[in-house]
Amino acid sequence: MGGSSGVRRLAEPVERLFGGIIGSVCAVRTSAPHVVLTYDDGPEPGSTEAVLEALRAFRATATFFVLMTRVRRFPGLLAEVVAEGHEVGLHGLDHRRLTGFPADEVERRTRSGRAELEDVIGRAVTWFRPPYGTQSPRTWRAVTRDGLVPVLWGPTLRDWQDVSQDERVAGALRGSRGGAIVLGHDGFAGPEDGVDDGPAPLVDRGDLTRRLLRACGERGLVGRSLGDALVVGEQSRRAWFRR
């Protein structure tokens, strides 16, 4: 996913240059014990259902950033996500990096993806997560011109890597506090999504969600979707750009 130091070096001068108006949601300012749970790259058979079951067991909500390549293949799974009361955001038409496209193509892709997703779920879509978290001021403007709000993250579950479940949870907990946005996945993008990132990792995503929520509960934290967390909190934005 890349280190944060490179992001800061690029982000800070751009933010000053544009008077702080360029920014993506990276956390929620809140006094509530809400950790924002986000899942990317789904829906995916086997994984999405397991994540939903775990969320249900802990009475948690989450935001699912979906790929349209997956939605077209598994619309029933997305319907389950919506029926369970979770939030849906756009991750892209596919998983290719937006920084590899001209600005007008970025705008076309996000506009058409948003319209298609809204038709499927029957509700407005506000949030957008760029694939790999890569964006530039140019792609940021193209995305936001369509009214979408880019959402990035803080702690991660490292569930795209072959590490142990304990390591994944421990890593996420190190940065988890009220208002943190946690990056997880209910799918793994592949050639059918326009990319080749190698073989999918060995991970039980339902078990991982249970472990995370259990550990959060021991710290007095509960899992919430971004929209649910913002009912009692405010968006915390900062410039986040990386290639």
TrEMBL record:
Task: Please name the InterPro entries in this protein's record.
Answer: Glyco_hydro/deAcase_b/a-brl (IPR011330), NODB_dom (IPR002509), Polysacc_deacetylase_ArnD (IPR050248)
Q: Name one GO molecular function term.
A: hydrolase activity, acting on carbon-nitrogen (but not peptide) bonds
At the top level of its lineage, which domain of life is listed?
A: Bacteria
Q: Which PROSITE patterns match?
A: NODB (PS51677)
Q: Where is the NodB homology domain?
A: 33-216
Q: Which GO terms describe its biological process?
A: carbohydrate metabolic process
PANTHER family listed in its UniProt record = 4-DEOXY-4-FORMAMIDO-L-ARABINOSE-PHOSPHOUNDECAPRENOL DEFORMYLASE ARND-RELATED (PTHR10587:SF137), GLYCOSYL TRANSFERASE-RELATED (PTHR10587)
Identification of the protein by name = Polysaccharide deacetylase family protein
Q: Which organism is it from?
A: Saccharothrix syringae
